[in-house]
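fyi for ur records
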Amino acid sequence: MFEFIQSTFSMIGKGGFIMIPILLCSIIALAIVIERLYFIRTTQENPKTTLDRFKESLMRNRLSEEWRGQQDSEDSIKRMIGDGLRLKDLPKWQMEERLSEVGQEEINKQNKFIRGLEVIASITPLMGLLGTVIGMVQAFNKVAEHKGIVDPSLLAGGIWEALLTTAAGLSVAIPTMVMLHYFTRRSENVAFNLEKCGRILIHHFSDEKDGRKLKTDWKGELVEA
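which gave:
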């Protein structure tokens, strides 16, 4: 383990000063990924389970009894239902606006720090390329300083060290991009679920006020986040 750490710092030293911001970016990206995974694990239940319970409550006309107070829940869909119950006495247009605001707040929570991953995934390959260009310039400058026959190993060694930054930049950018797509896809699914849930609530309370029987269409179920 000690030898691995020592070799890692040795490679960072050979890569030049550009390796420092790349290393910092990798630490920040790792911290964001861990924080987002912890957020998902602790705040999001299975949307299918939530939907089934929600449908059962609607069909049994027990929505208010079983879901009141859920605006303080950790689950975003439950919070949407709880807020819908809290706002059900408002006119339809006002309820639509308020639930839209609630949904946007939930999406903002889902997208927290995601912009940081986007920036890191974009700039680390560029920083790696910059480091390689600088290293190549230095390598060829050393070759130019030698008169006469130049030892090929001198140029090869300089190029090898210069390419370290490109490898480091890509090593940070690729997993960061993978996790970025995962979090973005999950956020899109949560947004769809919240929008669907909001529409169901609005139609349900609108029908309830007009004294009509529930006509909600259940064909478009919530999707897995």
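Residues 20 and 68 are 52 Å apart (CA to CA). thats all i got for now
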